[in-house]
Amino acid sequence: MHRLQLHYTLGRDLGNPTVRNPLIDLLQALSAHGSISAAARAMGLSYRHVWGELKRWEDALGNGLVLWEKGQSARLTPFGTKLMWAERQAQARLAPQIDALRNELERVFAVAFDPQAHVLTLYASHDHALAALREHAMAGSDDPGPPRDPLHLDIRFCGSVDAIRALNEGRCSIAGFHTLQTAQPGSLAQRTYKPLLRPGRHKIIGFAQRTQGLIVARGNPLQLQSLQDVVLRAARYVNRAPGTGTRVVLDELLLGAALEPAALAGYGHTEPSHAAVAQSIASGSADVGLGIAMAARAQGLDFVPLVQERYFLVCLKSALEQPATRALLAVLRSDAWRAKLDAMAGYQESRCGEVLSLRECLPWWTFRPRRSESPRTGGPRLAGRSA
């Protein structure tokens, strides 16, 4: 079976752009003019080039394209005729989709040619508010005052751990992760995130407070109010993958409740997002999963709040002065965005857009004061470090 590969061309003036194949243009000219020499003149090409292209295409497709009979004009073979027919059918049937694709490509590439536009790559734990932020930043602000530069967020949703690793490896400029609001020194969250973050190198950007809870069927038929209930009623659980922030939260809650992971029927059954967890419950393949209220609401499911957590953005300290990062901070600090975030189910803005230190947000770094001078010198004895 022959396969198709699409290409596009960038330029200032391309006439009436469409999806075309050079072979079809060549066959059309040959059919209209009856000879290679006439077709070549009509296309502004040499006889040798057209002849060579015909032979190359015949070899590539494994079929003849032109019939040559002495004393008669060149004619397309039945295969060549069917190729022309297929082209007409495709253009007629797919013209709206082709126009939509071309318009979308032109819109996206317009950003590349706009010196005022910013593109910021963000790897983050799955979050509905971030998806809303992407649309808000692209559409422009409703705040009064001078217009801001366009900001396009290139968001790749992945686990919290993978997001911070992507930041540290230079694959993104911003990472998004979340922790329990009550995460303390010695917690699983500390053991997960502390090795990935370095005071003095990373900076936290406040984003949101959100509620995580049990996503259950409408009416909560199993009357699940806690993880203990999930275990006692042998409810079918749907989990998130290792490395995701929600998996860390779940394991933290299990530790706090003295429950073994194996006690959850379905602990090994994972889905890639909050939306996928909700869909699994809505379809009846699971009874319960840990997730956010927005995902439950989207599927018409019930939601049992369990814990509050803070969702953070993190970047390298060196990125704070980059134009794209400054544009993001401006959006996050705007009244319009904060009001939109507060209106989302299960969300509340939490120092949104403020640049914070790791030590301020995550109580996992303690710095022992070091003796800098002898008391006999009369100078200061202690010196600390900021996170």
Describe the fold and architecture.
The protein starts with 21 loop residues before the first helix and ends with a strand. It contains 14 helices and 14 strands. The strands form 3 sheets. Strands 3, 4, 5, 6, 7, 8, 9, 10, 11 and 12 form a 10-stranded mixed sheet that branches. A two-stranded antiparallel ribbon has the order 1-2. The chain has 387 residues and is of the alpha/beta class. The protein folds into 2 domains: 22-112, Winged helix-like DNA-binding domain superfamily/Winged helix DNA-binding domain (Arc Repressor Mutant, subunit A), CATH 1.10.10.10; 118-361, 3-Layer(aba) Sandwich (D-Maltodextrin-Binding Protein, domain 2).
SSE layout and pairing:
Blueprint: H1 22-33, H2 36-43, H3 47-61, E1 66-67, E2 75-76, H4 78-112, E3 118-124, H5 128-139, E4 151-157, H6 160-168, E5 174-180, H7 188-193, E6 202-216, H8 227-232, E7 237-240, H9 245-256, E8 270-271, H10 274-282, E9 288-292, H11 293-298, E10 302-316, H12 323-333, H13 335-342, E11 347-349, E12 355-356, H14 358-361, E13 370-371, E14 382-383
Parallel strand pairs: 3-4, 3-5, 7-8, 7-9
Antiparallel strand pairs: 1-2, 5-10, 6-9, 6-10, 6-11, 6-12, 13-14
Helix pairs in contact: 1-2, 2-3
Defining traits:
387 residues, alpha/beta, Arc Repressor Mutant, subunit A, D-Maltodextrin-Binding Protein, domain 2, two-stranded antiparallel sheet, 14 strands
